[in-house]
Design brief:
Elements lengths: L13 H19 L6 H8 L3 H7 L3 H14 L2 H9 L4 H20 L5 H11 L1 H19 L2 H13 L7 H15 L11
Helix pairs in contact: 1-2, 1-4, 5-6, 5-8, 6-8, 6-10, 7-8, 8-9, 9-10
Length: 192
């Protein structure tokens, strides 16, 4: 007797269908890499027909762009709420980075093609990455109260990603960096 393969339920509305496609696409991009992922792979993973993909997205590039926006942009609303709550600077900075960097990092790292994912986005969609950088700059500037400090913090934080650390290590590195940037006024990073 044949057993049926487990099927992913087909989403009921457009928003759910789009989210299903983006989640399945991310899985494919992380498993096969951007170049080797086909629309057939994505359709199969999303349990949808290839023509249905074309109703939602024009091509693989548009899907990848949507994946990145969905993955990273998902934390923007929470970041805005955290900043509006006007909590302590250190906690707010760490919480914002949790939503806009660490949660996406956890989802991506540890997969076969993790190292390629962010590089592919920067190469193919510099406008999307630039928009993300601007949002992050706005958030960090608001928290630190100084654009120059925010720019240095962001550059230092990007440097923490260079060796593609596991999320737990990255979280600790960000905590150390944040603590160094948010010190009491009597403390100084450089002895004069």
């Amino acid at each position: 007797m044949k057993t049926k393969a487990k099927e992913t339920p087909v989403p009921a509305n457009d928003e759910q269908r789009r989210a299903t496609i983006l989640t399945a696409s991310l899985d494919c991009f992380l498993k096969f890499g951007y170049a080797k992922t086909s629309l057939d792979d994505i359709a199969k993973s999303a349990n949808l027909s290839r023509p249905l993909l074309y109703l939602k997205f024009r091509n693989k590039e548009e899907i990848f762009k949507g994946v990145f926006d969905h993955l990273v942009g998902g934390g923007y609303d929470m970041a805005k709420k955290l900043i509006a709550a006007r909590g302590k600077k250190l906690a707010t900075l760490m919480d914002v980075y949790e939503w806009v960097l660490l949660k996406p990092w956890e989802r991506v790292m540890g997969q076969a093609m993790s190292a390629e994912f962010y590089d592919t986005c920067r190469r193919l969609f510099p406008d999307v990455c630039s928009q993300h950088d601007k949002m992050l700059s706005r958030y960090v500037t608001t928290i630190l109260g100084n654009k120059e400090q925010a720019d240095v913090f962001i550059l230092a934080a990007w440097g923490l990603l260079a060796d593609l650390p596991p999320p737990k290590v990255l979280r600790r590195r960000l905590a150390v960096l944040s603590e160094r940037f948010i010190q009491s006024p009597s403390e100084s990073m450089v002895n004069e």
